[in-house]
Amino acid sequence: MPLSEDLKGQIRDSFIALKDDMDGFQLRGAQNKMIAEISKTLAGEYKDNNKILCVEAPTGTGKTFAYLLSAIPIAKANKKKLIISSANVALQEQLLVKDLPEASKYCQAEFKYELVKGRSRYVCIRNLINLTEDNATDESLAAGVLFDEPPAQYQIQQMADLLRDYSEQEWNGEIDDLIRTPDSMVWQKIACNRFTCTAKNCEFYQDCSFFKARKKITQADVIVANHDLVLADLSTGNTVLPNVEDAIFIFDEAHHLNAKALSHFSLSTSTEFIKISIRQAKSVSEQICKITEQNDIEIDIKQIDEHLQDLTMIFKGLPYDDDTHLFNQGQVDASIAQISTQLNTLITVTANRFQQLKKSWEDCLKLKPLDKHIADPLNNAIGEVEQHLVGIIELLMSFLKTDNDTKTPYSRWISKNTVNKKINYSINSAQTDISTNLDKLIWSKAAGCILTSATLSSLGSFERLNNQLGLIKTENQYLRLPSPFKFEKVDFIVAKFQANPTQIYEHTQEVATQLLERIDSNEGSLVLFASNKQMQMVADLVEKKLEPHLLVQGEFSKKLILEKHINLRKQGQGSVIFGLDSFAEGVDLKGNNLTHVIIAKLRFSVPTSPIDKTLADYLQSQNRNPFMEISLPDASLKLIQACGRLIRTETDSGKITIFDNRMVTKFYGKQLLNALPNYNIIIEQP
Fold this sequence. Notes:
The chain has 686 residues and is an alpha/beta fold. The protein folds into 4 domains: 5-112 and 220-261 and 435-480, Rossmann fold (3-Layer(aba) Sandwich); 119-214, no CATH class; 266-430, no CATH class; 487-683, Rossmann fold (3-Layer(aba) Sandwich), CATH 3.40.50. It has a 7-stranded parallel sheet with strand order 3-4-2-5-10-1-11. Strands 14-15-13-16-17-12-18 form a 7-stranded parallel sheet. The protein has a 4-stranded antiparallel sheet with strand order 6-9-8-7.
C-alpha cells in the first residue's frame, strides 16, 4: 500500500526543515534516494516482497538522518516501535547524545526515545538488601547457597556502599553508571536475572531499576539497542524489547550482524562447571527438603562424577591444536557421544526432579510464608540451579544432535585450559549457519527491517551478506549508494614489493624499510597490520629511526591513542599510528589528522576459529571453494573498510599505499582493485 499524502508530507517537511536549519548541512542526492527507498519499502509499496531493505551507504551519505526522518513517521503512523540496533557503544552514544536530539528538532512526528540494556546491567535491589544485611537470622544459609565460599569483608563492604548509594538515590542501579564496579562474582549475585526474578510478586517491584527502565521503554517510540541484546532478547522469549511483530528494526553496522549471531548461538560448558552445578543442586535440594520436611530427592552425584571422569580420560588423549580439539565436520567420536548421552540422561532426570521439588517449594510458600531472610536466598539459589542445569542440558543436546544433511554441520570441539595448575575441559557446540535462526526470529516476523552500513556488499555484490544472514535476493530490496567524495583524486598505490606476505620474515623487513622511506615526518599516518606479531616486529625495527611520534596499539587504549595523535597534529607535529583490525574500522580522523593510510597486507580470514574451520572443511567436502566463497569476499570488504579511514569529509585528501604484491601477482588482484571506490590506481613497476 502506497504512502499516504500526509506521511509523504511529514517526511518531506522533516527533510526540508533539516536542510534549512542544520549547521553544515549539504544537499546530497544519495540521502534523498535512501529516504525514498526506506519509505517505499516500509510502506509496502513493493508488492509480494518483504519489507526488508539492505542499503550500502558510504561515509558522508547522511544515512543516520535518512533512516531517522523516514522511519520514525512511518513507525508512528502504523503504531509500531522503531528499534535501532548498532554493533558498538560509540554509535549508540552518537545516536543518544547527538543524532536523536537533532532529529527531534526537524521530525514532523513527535517521538520519545530510550536506550535499552540487558537485564544483567541492572541491580536486583532485593538481592542486594538480603546479602548486605547482617544475616543475623542465618548467615550460613545466605552464604552457603549463593556463594561457593562466603564473601570477603571487602566484598560485603562493596555491597553495603552500593545499597547506601541506591537508597539515597545517588545511584540509579545500572552497572554502567558506576565509577568503580564491584567484583564480577559479587555483581553476578546481585544483578537482575530472569531465572531468579519474581517480577510483580517482588516486594521491591515498584523500586526496581530494571522495571523502571522497562516502563520507560514501553513509553518510547524509538528504542536504541545493540545487536547482542536484540539477539539475546528475541531468542529468550522477547521479554525486554517490544514484540517483533510490532517493531521496525534498523540494523546499523549490519555487516557485524553475522559474527554477533554466530557468537550468540554458540554453547559451552565445562566438566568442572557440571560438577559444581550438580553439587549446588544437591545442596539446595537438601535445604528445601529440610525446611519443607520431605524426603531428599535422589541426585546421583557418584555416577555423574564417574561419567565426567571417563570423559576427562578420553579428552586427555585427544590431539590438540592450540588447546582445541575440533571434531571433523562436527561428528563427535562414538565413545564420547556414548558417555555424553548417559551424562545427559542423568542430568535431565536431575533437572526434572529439581523442577518437581521447586513446584512443591512454591506450594509450601503459598500455604506458609517464610521469613524473607530464608526464602529469598533459597529462591535465588533455586533459580541459579535451574539456569545452570538448563544450560548444561541445552549444550549436551546440541553436542549430541544429528545434523541435517542438507545444511552445513554444527561445529563441535573440546578446549582445555589450566586453572590453579588443574586442567579443565570445555565442551562446545556452535552453528556454522545462523540464517534459519535469523529468519525465524526477525525476517519472517518484523513489521520492517532496514540493514545499513558503509560497507555491506563485497566484490560489488550482496551475495555474501544474503548467504550469511539468510536473506533471499528476490524477496527484498537492495540499494548501493554512490559516495559524495571525489575518490578519483586519491592515489591508491600498490607498492613495488619484492617479498610476498607469505614470506613472513622478508616481508616484515621490507615493510619496515619502506615505512621509513614513505612516511612523511610532518604528516598524520595510519599503518594497518593484519597480525599483532608483525606489527610488534616492525615497531621494534623502526621505532628509533622514525622521526614522527609512534603510537602502537596495545601500549595505550584506542581512545587515548587517538587523543594523543590529534593533539600532536594540533601542535603541527608528525604522528604515526600502528593498529590492527579495530583501527581499520570506526576511526574518524578528519582533515590533516590523517593524510596517509598504509596497509601492510590484505586481511584474509584464514579459518582459525573452530566454526570457520568446520565451515571451510564442509565446503571443500562439497567440492566448493572456501577461499572464493568466504575469504576473498571478506578480504574485499575489509580492504574497503581500511581504505575508508582516509576520506571522512568532502575536503579531506591524501593517499593509500598497500604493501601486498598479491594485488598484481594473483588472479584475484584485479577483482579486489575493481571492487574499490574509483581511486586513482597506481601500480608501481618492478
